Amino acid sequence: MPFTRYMEVGRIVLINFGPLTGKLATVVDIVDQNKCLIDGPREITGVDRQVISYTRIELTDYIVKIKKNARAEEIKEAWTEADILASWEASAWAKKLESKKRRRALSDFDRFKVMVAKKQKSAIIAKKMAELE
C-alpha cells in the first residue's frame, strides 16, 4: 500500500505533544524540513497560529483547500465547508482517542465494576457455548 499522507498546505494535523495534545490544526505553510506553520482556527479548535515541529504532530487523511499563508477567516470557512470536525469525530481514530481518554479517567471503583461486568459477560457466553455442545 503506497504512502498517501503528505505534508502539504491545507493538511489537517493532530497535535500529539504539549499543552495542545489531542487538538486538530491546519497546516498553513511549510517552514523547513522540520517545522510547519499551523493554525486552528482558534474559534473551532482552540489552536493559535504557531510554528510547530513535525515530531509534535500527526498527519490525518483530511485536507482543506486553502492558499499558502491563508488568513484565519479563510481557514474557518474552509473547515465549515468541508465539515472537518464532524468527519473527524466520526472517524475510528477519534473514537479510539476518546475511548482511551474515558478509560484513563476511570476511578479504581469504576475499573472494578468494568472487571466484574467482563467476568459476568464471559460467564454467560461460556454457559451458552456449553449448552450448544
Write the layout of secondary structure elements.
Blueprint: E1 11-15, E2 24-30, E3 35-39, H1 42-45, E4 50-53, E5 57-63, H2 72-82, H3 84-89, H4 92-104, H5 108-132
Q: Helix and strand string, N-terminal first?
A: EEEHEEHHHH
Strand arrangement within the widest β-sheet reads 4-3-2-1-5
Strand proportion: 15-25%
Q: Give helix % range.
A: 40-55%
The number of distinct β-strands equals 5
Q: How large is the radius of gyration?
A: 21 Å
Helical stretch tally = 5
Give the biggest sheet: 5 strands, antiparallel
How far do the termini sit from each other? 43 Å
Low-confidence stretches: none
Q: Based on CA inertia axes, which overall geometry fits?
A: elongated
Task: Report mean pLDDT, rounded to a whole number.
Answer: 95
Helix and strand composition category: alpha+beta
Q: What does the model show?
A:
There is one protein chain. With 133 residues, the protein is of the alpha+beta class. It has five helices and five strands; from the N terminus they run βββαββαααα. The chain has a five-stranded antiparallel sheet with strand order 4-3-2-1-5, with no helix packed on it. β2 (24-30) and β3 (35-39) form a beta hairpin. The longest helix has 25 residues, at 108-132. The radius of gyration is 21 Å and the shape is elongated. The model has no long low-confidence stretch (mean pLDDT 95).
